[in-house]
Amino acid sequence: MNELIPGTVVTLDVDREAPFGYFLTNGEEDVLLHNNEITEEFDLGDELTVFLFQDHQGRLAASMKIPTAQLNAYDWVEVVEVKRELGVFVNIGINKDILVSKDDLHEIWDLWPEQGDRLYCSLKTDKNGRLFGRLATEDVIRTISKNAERKDYNKNITGTVYRLLLVGSFIISDEGYIGFIHESQRKREPRLGEKVQGRIIDVKEDGSVNVSLLARGHEVIGDDAEQIYSYMESRGGAMPYWDKSDAEEIKIRFNMSKSAFKRALGNLMKVGKVYQEEGWTYFKKE
C-alpha cells in the first residue's frame, strides 16, 4: 500500500463519520477530512480525491480543495502573514496557510514579501513531514517565461519580483517576459514578491528585457520641479544654483542629472514661479 505523504493528491475511501468530519482510509492508514475542507456532498464508501497535509496539531489531514502548488508543482500563491521570527505564510487554497521559512528569504527584512505580495512556489517537507513553501529557482521561472520582441522596446511593463541580487532585481512580467532591473534604474529596491510597473529599455538576444522603474523624461519634470521648489522654500525662496551650475554639484544636491534639472527649472520659470540672476535662482513675487 502506498504511503500517505503530505503535499500529495491521493484517492481514498470514505470510511466513517466523525464529530468534526469524516475519516478516509487507504486500508492501512486513516486520515481526517475536516468539515471545513469539504467542497461537495458524498456518501460513506465513496472514493474521494483529496490533498494531504498536516493540521495545526501535526496530524495528517485531508482536503477536497486541491491546490495547484504541490510537492512537484509550482504556482503563484499570495502572502497572507509575515512573522519576523519564522518567515512568511502563504495561502495555497486550503484552510491552513503554509510557511516560507525565513532561511529562504533575504537577510534584510525590508526586502521580505508583504501581505498581498505573490510568490511562485511549490511545496517541500521536512523530516517530520511538515509542509513548507519552496521558492521557484531561475530554471523553474524560465519554464513559464516567453521571449519579448524588438517591437516591445519602450513599452510599459508590469511584473512580479522573483529574485534579488546586489546589482539589481529580476521580475517576470504579466506577459511572461523575464526582466532585469539594474540598481541604477530604480529609486528603491523592490521587495521579493512585489508587483512593480516600469518600461522596457532594452530587448536582449535571448528574449529577456532590461527594465527601468524610473519615469520617462517628460513624466518626471513635475516631480523634479517640486523637489527644487521645496528646496528653495527651505532656504527662504532662493538657492545658489541655476541652469549653468556644475552637473556634479546638481547631482550631489538634488540627485538628478543636469538635463533633468534644467528641464525642471525651465518648467518653473515657464509657469512664473522662479527667475534666475547671476548664478542664483529666486522665487518670483506674486
From TrEMBL:
<dbReference type="InterPro" id="IPR048588">
    <property type="entry name" value="CvfB_S1_2nd"/>
</dbReference>
<dbReference type="InterPro" id="IPR040764">
    <property type="entry name" value="CvfB_WH"/>
</dbReference>
<dbReference type="Pfam" id="PF21543">
    <property type="entry name" value="CvfB_2nd"/>
</dbReference>
<dbReference type="Pfam" id="PF21191">
    <property type="entry name" value="CvfB_1st"/>
</dbReference>
<dbReference type="InterPro" id="IPR014464">
    <property type="entry name" value="CvfB_fam"/>
</dbReference>
<dbReference type="InterPro" id="IPR003029">
    <property type="entry name" value="S1_domain"/>
</dbReference>
<dbReference type="InterPro" id="IPR039566">
    <property type="entry name" value="CvfB_S1_st"/>
</dbReference>
<feature type="domain" description="S1 motif">
    <location>
        <begin position="70"/>
        <end position="136"/>
    </location>
</feature>
<feature type="domain" description="S1 motif">
    <location>
        <begin position="152"/>
        <end position="214"/>
    </location>
</feature>
<protein>
    <submittedName>
        <fullName>S1-like domain-containing RNA-binding protein</fullName>
    </submittedName>
</protein>
<dbReference type="GO" id="GO:0003676">
    <property type="term" value="F:nucleic acid binding"/>
</dbReference>
<feature type="domain" description="S1 motif">
    <location>
        <begin position="5"/>
        <end position="65"/>
    </location>
</feature>
<comment type="similarity">
    <text>Belongs to the CvfB family.</text>
</comment>
<dbReference type="InterPro" id="IPR036388">
    <property type="entry name" value="WH-like_DNA-bd_sf"/>
</dbReference>
<dbReference type="Pfam" id="PF13509">
    <property type="entry name" value="S1_2"/>
</dbReference>
<dbReference type="InterPro" id="IPR012340">
    <property type="entry name" value="NA-bd_OB-fold"/>
</dbReference>
<dbReference type="Pfam" id="PF17783">
    <property type="entry name" value="WHD_CvfB"/>
</dbReference>
<dbReference type="InterPro" id="IPR048587">
    <property type="entry name" value="CvfB_S1_3rd"/>
</dbReference>
